[in-house]
TrEMBL record:
This is Mitochondrial coenzyme A transporter SLC25A42. Its main location: membrane. InterPro entries: MCP, MCP_dom_sf, MCP_transmembrane. GO terms for cellular component: membrane. Solcar repeats lie at residues 35-121, 159-244, 254-342. It comes from Pogonophryne albipinna.
Length: 354
């Protein structure tokens, strides 16, 4: 029947023939909205690498103050940065950044990819009732299966507030579980001289031989306790601001500078909420090289408060975090969204070509 219709049709203009040769619009939209886990991993890794490289000198300075009993001030931080530059040159400000890249690229890749998967899973089970902890653990197990075997849909329907928070928290927790030893190595390299640890493998070998394998996971508990509110609040705030923006402006996607602002707000709120646990984590990670005996979360927190006070101890360096944190999170989230959109357009172009 199709042949008979074709036989009776007159030749079409080139433009019309080209249009009619394309697949149905519904099929094109369906294929263009599919997003592979590999694409998400690449976007996440790139976003994390760019953000951490930009703020590496500030991050290193913050860690040095976090693990010492010296009082933090902007003047002292500037003096430390200048001293590092005069002593070791410009590249000394990025000491430990190689370990940061090795950590942050898989961390960011897993976090962003799992966040997409959790939104997909939670959206698919929207309205699911009860079985709280079992519900969460089932999703953790499902993620391992889905991460590399299914496509993630780029467009998610709006999730309720708690579900947005839960998706972010689970994404952060998943990323930490897979990459924590690299964070420990990064912290050690940031606070020690090159003579002590020459490279990443040297850090792993010395810690394993002198302090034991378990030391690589020292500070894991406060990290998990901190990443739940941090990642949850950060992703929740970013997704909520984008949702409100879309409702107010009727534009599906914000401009790059708007994404940057949304990410900065998300980072500011998320990092402020979890900062004391970040200080505790760094103290426990570097106890082997600072001569301190930090073993448990509560014991470390009690020692910090007793010796340095609540504000000057648990919130030491927070003002610097307010400077570097929003910049890093803003760059990371906006870079991920931009590269996400870019790869999606490349997929669409490739589809149109076929």
């Amino acid at each position: 029947m199709a042949h008979s219709v074709t036989d009776h049709q007159s030749p079409l203009p080139v433009s019309e023939a080209t249009v009619l040769a394309l697949p149905p619009s519904g099929q094109a939209q369906n294929l263009s909205s599919r997003w592979t886990a590999v694409d998400s991993l690449l976007c996440g890794a790139f976003a994390g690498a760019v953000a951490k490289t930009v703020i590496a000198p500030l991050d290193r300075t913050k860690i040095i103050f976090q693990v010492s009993s010296n009082r933090f001030s902007a003047k002292e931080a500037f003096r430390l940065i200048c001293g590092s530059y005069m002593k070791g040159g410009l590249l000394s400000l990025w000491r430990g950044n190689s370990a940061t890249m090795i950590r942050v690229m898989p961390y960011a890749a897993i976090q962003f990819t799992s966040h997409d998967q959790y939104k997909r899973l939670l959206g698919g089970y929207y309205g699911y009732q009860g079985h709280g902890l079992l519900f969460v653990f089932v999703y953790l197990l499902l993620l391992l299966l889905l991460l590399f075997t299914t496509d993630c849909c780029v467009c998610f329907r709006a999730l309720p507030p708690f579900t947005r928070f839960l998706a972010g928290s689970l994404a952060g927790t998943t990323a930490v579980m897979f990459t924590y030893p690299l964070d420990m190595v990064r912290a050690r390299m940031a606070v020690t001289a090159r003579e002590m640890y020459s490279n990443i493998m040297h850090v792993f070998m010395r810690i394993s031989q002198e302090e034991g394998i378990r030391t690589l996971y020292r500070g894991f508990t406060p990290t998990i306790m901190g990443v739940i509110p941090y990642a949850g609040i950060t992703f929740y705030t970013f997704e909520t601001l984008k949702k409100i923006h879309a409702e107010k402006t009727k534009r599906p996607q914000p401009h790059p500078h708007e994404r940057l602002a949304f990410g900065a707000c998300a980072g500011l709120i998320g990092q402020s909420a979890s900062y004391p646990l970040d200080v505790v984590r760094r103290r426990m990670q570097t106890a082997g090289v600072t001569g301190s005996a930090y073993v448990t979360v509560l014991g470390t927190m009690r020692a910090i408060v007793t010796q340095e006070g609540v504000i000057r101890g648990l919130y030491k360096g927070l003002s610097m975090n307010w400077l570097k944190g929003p910049i890093a999170v803003g760059i990371s989230l906006s870079t991920f969204d931009i590269t996400n959109d870019l790869l999606l357009k490349m997929h669409q172009i490739g589809f149109s070509a076929h």
